[in-house]
Specification:
191 residues; mainly alpha; Serine Threonine Protein Phosphatase 5, Tetratricopeptide repeat; elongated; Hsp90 protein binding; TPR_rpt; TPR repeat
Length: 191
């Protein structure tokens, strides 16, 4: 390997990286903020480099992925609970707004946070908003949210139940029955 302080033909610094048990040289174009390595695919590195360049200079470096933003979790939970309270009071418009706020906050989590946390939060909020839409006779919106919840948690019976309710509201009874039956496969004791 070359001297890590050397420059390539364009005058950009040549650096050394480790991939498993192998080392390889790469260079960084400081003007463009891109990485190049003749023997490696660095597409993902370049995407990450472009994303980092968009951050303001005072932005902190992302913490490790196992860190969860407690304030965001708390805000999502509060918005979801507000939606639940409005739903119980039959204030469906306010319930939908609160669930939408919880969904937006969950989607605003930093990219380095666990996707499991986001999937859990989103699936619950989407299923709840689906129920509110269905109660407001907005069955297409209810179906969209139920489908999104199922995409996040395929083996969650509540998502399939919400989909079945939305399909029944649209008078698509055969599809509704199939959704209910699929949900029961994941939770056969659920009455």
């Amino acid at each position: 390997m070359g001297d890590p302080r050397a420059d390539d033909v364009e005058g950009d610094p040549v650096l050394v990286a480790v991939d498993g048990n192998e080392t390889f040289e790469f260079s960084v174009d400081m003007d463009k903020g891109t990485v190049s390595a003749p023997t490696r695919d660095v597409t993902v590195l370049n995407l990450l480099a472009r994303w980092v360049r968009l951050l303001p200079p005072e932005a902190p470096f992302p913490p490790p992925p196992h860190i969860i933003q407690g304030k965001i979790s708390q805000a999502v939970t509060q918005a979801k609970e507000a939606g639940n309270n409005c739903f119980r009071k039959k204030d469906l418009s306010s319930a939908i707004q609160a669930y939408s706020m919880a969904i937006a906050m969950s989607l605003d989590r930093p990219l380095w946070e666990s996707s499991n946390v986001v999937a859990e939060e989103l699936s619950v909020c989407l299923a709840n908003r689906s129920a509110a839409y269905a109660a407001a006779n907005a069955y297409i919106e209810a179906l969209c949210d139920a489908d999104a919840a199922i995409q996040l948690r395929r083996n969650w019976s509540k998502g399939h139940f919400r989909k079945g309710k939305a399909l029944a509201g649209l008078h698509r009874y055969a599809e509704a029955r199939a959704a209910f039956q699929l949900g029961l496969q994941f939770d056969p004791d659920n009455v």
